[in-house]
Amino acid sequence: MGMSTSIQGFVSPNDPTYKKHVKVLIACSEAEIEEMPKETSEYFGSTYPEECLIEEKLHVNIPVKEYSAEMEDGYEILVSEIPEGVHKIRFFNSY
After folding, report:
1. What predicted TM-score, i.e. pTM, was given to this entire model?
2. Contact at 8 Å (CB) between 53 and 44?
3. DSSP annotation string for 34-46
4. For the chain, which residues make up each domain, given as ranges?
5. Cα dist. 12→25, 31, 33, 45 in Å?
6. If the chain, 95 residues long, is cut into consecutive pieces of 10 residues, what is the mean pLDDT of each piece?
7. CA distances from 61 to 8, 20, 23, 88 (A)
8. String of DSSP letters for the chain
9. What is d(CA 28, CA 33) in angstroms, rounded to the nearest whole number?
C-alpha cells in the first residue's frame, strides 16, 4: 500500500476580496445575468455566474515543486507564488 502527500490552500470566507466577488456573482445569478463583469469572471475563472464557484473558490491549488536530495524527498512551495487570499495551507497524507 502506497502513500501520497497532497497540499491544499484555503481562502477565508471572510476575505474582503472573496466577499466582494461573491456578492457580484450572487447578484448576477439572481438577476439572471448570463455573464459576470470582467473582474469577477477573472477572479472565479469563469464567465458564468454559477453558484458552485462560491464554494470551489475557497479551495486553492498551491503551486509545488518536488524536492529530492540524498535520502530526502519532499515538496517546495515558493511563497511568492501562493495565490492572493490564501490564509491556510494544509499538508495531508492519503493511504
Report:
1. 0.75
2. yes
3. SS--HHHHHHHT-
4. 4-94
5. 17, 26, 27, 18
6. 87 95 97 96 95 94 92 91 92 91
7. 6, 21, 23, 12
8. ---EEEEEEEE-TT-HHHHHHHHHHHHHHHTT-SS--HHHHHHHT-SS--THHHHHTTEEEPPEEEEEETTEEEEEE-GGGSPTTEEEEEEEEE-
9. 5
